[in-house]
Structure to design on (114 residues):
């Protein structure tokens, strides 16, 4: 997952409180594309009437600039990216895994797992 909450485990009430009361902040790492961050910001607008999809539903999301080069009619024919099997790693401290997610040529993020 490109972005997620901090490692602490939050209760549902604490998570809801964070969503409602806190401003959205992206961490310095992993680096994400500006388009990906903009898309996430638009989905997480607190006022429902201003949120992406509030006017035209999923059509509005599909037409968003982040997906401009994606052919939705052929999406089911697309080959998904290969997922890493973390069981293959021996946990050596010097081992690093570089993860990079790209959708339709748009780099979403890149980060290292130490």
């Amino acid at each position: 997952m490109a972005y997620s909450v901090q490692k602490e485990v939050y209760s549902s009430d604490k998570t809801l409180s964070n969503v409602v009361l806190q401003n959205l902040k992206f961490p310095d790492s992993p680096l994400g594309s500006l388009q990906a961050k903009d898309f996430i910001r638009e989905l997480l607008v607190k006022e429902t009437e201003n949120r992406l999809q509030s006017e035209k539903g999923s059509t509005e999301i599909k037409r968003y600039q982040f997906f401009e080069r994606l052919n939705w009619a052929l999406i089911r024919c697309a080959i998904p990216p290969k997922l890493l099997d973390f069981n293959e790693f021996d946990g050596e401290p010097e081992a690093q895994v570089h993860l990079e997610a790209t959708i339709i040529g748009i780099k979403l993020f890149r980060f290292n797992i130490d």
Notes: Residues 93-98 have pLDDT under 50 and may be disordered. Residues 30-77+95-114 form one domain. The first helix runs from residue 12 to 21. Strands lie at 31-32, 97-103, 106-113.
